[in-house]
Amino acid sequence: MREHSSPIPVPSRPSVRRARSASTQRPSPAELDAITGNRDRVVDLIRLTSLIVVIAGHSLMLTVSVHDGRVTLGNTLSDVPILQPMTWLLQILPLFFFAGAAASTYGWRPDSSPGQWLLCRAQRLFRPVAWYLATVLTAYAVCTSIGASAVADVVAHLGVQLLWFLGAYVLVLAAVPALQRLSSRRAVLVATAVAWTVTAGVDVTRLAVGASGLGYVNFLSVWIIPAMLGVAYAKRLFTRFEAAVLGLVALIIDILLVSLGPYEMSLVTVPGQHLSNMSPPSLLLAGHTVVLCAFAIVLRTPLARVVAHTRVWWWVVLGNRGAMTLYLWHLPVLGAIIGVAHLCGFTRDPQSALFWPTVLVTTMLLLAAMVPVTGVLSVLENRRLPWWDEPVARATTTCRDVAVLVLLAVVAVSTLLVARGGIVEEWGWLASGICAAAGARAVAAVSRSTTLDRSHHVH
After folding, report:
1. Is the pLDDT of residue 71 over 60?
2. Is a pLDDT exceeding 50 seen at residue 453?
3. Which of 7, 8, 343, 417 is an S-S bond match for 429, by CB 3.0 to 4.6 Å?
4. What's the whole-number mean pLDDT along residues 48-62?
5. Contacts of 237 (CB under 8 A, 6+ apart)
6. What does pTM read for this prediction?
7. Could you tell me what percent of the chain has a pLDDT over 90?
8. 378-436 tens-digit pLDDT
9. What pLDDT was estimated at residue 67?
């Protein structure tokens, strides 16, 4: 089994520090290539690529119209429906779950307590979120105090909308210790089929009786599928041929679901959809996760060749060290770029003659701007917080461990609900999530002698 850890540690040996540039304080590509050993670099490449494509997709989809002083946000896929099939190529966020589970499998140790293990991951995941959420709450308070209610409403909702991903990801990570029992191709296929069937049952019920709240079950039943396939990837349970067959079968089923079933083409939410494929996730998205992960397994060798290049690996390492920062802050940066462009006469109104040139240029500017933004703000992501980041013991009593696990599950569910309704409407869940996180940290066992190896943190 290949070594894997995340985030990727930057060397601290005196000889390496002296070799670094005084301006960057980062290892050179050659140094980084030497110290990362036989790490599975494909996992880190997949994780970073999935985030970059998602960020670009958010920019390409967003339309902004200003009429009579009112700002209206829209979706390119709604205005130009012919582009919706493109989401089958651009909706690759499931690969982040795939990569996260693979990295967790490489770093899992059987003597770890699941709750303690999950808290160790949550420490790093929520560290940048704490800074981001503090900024959102401050921005909301300032906008409210100066009477900018329209801006305050956007901040209250759009500012936390993307946190749904974190809630779903923590729920899936909570299941990773149990997923380590998957030790054969058959076991993975059976488990995947069970999750797919549960998702189908939920969708049928939603359509039959309109039980929309039941859709939240799919946040676990769908997103656990790429995690299971990530475990299979790390354990090498599928050959390339077997993975290719699995991917093709899943793709055919997805095509049939759209052609003959109730599902719409777009794999991201579009206004007016009678059944969203994304929020909550649907059976179509469940199949799509299988397609993506299966072909990721197929492409393992060529991807390994790509990331074997020293300069490529250097960028992958730096990107992964700020992965959560990259994800959290791209919408505020996009908003700033769109605002400046609007002042310069370049709007994202779909009726504008310069709409597509504006969208493409601002998307490229966003990707370029996120390099320095992530470089600056990722310092907060990698700086440990007092108390919250105290070392977590590898094992503890069953009662204490279950308590930690339950509290972190509450944090995950609270995050999903806050992302859905905003910080004002769902302030109770926001408070509950913060209290549950603090409770998990307080209940968890702390030990200076037998601690979880922090080199195995997972974004």
Report:
1. yes
2. no
3. 417
4. 95
5. 182, 183, 184, 185, 188
6. 0.90
7. 71
8. 999 989 999 999 988 888 889 999 999 999 999 999 999 999 999 999 999 999 999 99
9. 74
Cβ atoms within 10 Å, residue 386: 6
Q: What mean pLDDT is predicted for residues 61-84?
A: 85
413-418 — which CB contacts under 8 Å span 24+ positions? Answer: 413/167, 413/171, 414/167, 415/163, 415/164, 415/166, 415/167, 415/170, 416/164, 416/167, 416/168, 416/216, 416/219, 418/160, 418/163
Can you read off the two tokens belonging to residue 304? 């390994």
What does the pLDDT read at residue 150? Answer: 81
Query: Taking 60 as the threshold, does the pLDDT of residue 3 lie above it?
Result: no
pLDDT at residue 69, as a whole number: 66
pLDDT at 14 over 60: no
What average pLDDT does this structure show over 30-54? 87
Residue type, 410: V
For the stretch 169-192, what's the b/e string if a residue is b when 16 or more beta carbons lie within 10 angstroms of its beta carbon? bbbbbbbbbebbebeebebbbebb
Pick from 302, 309, 305: nearest CA to 240 = 302
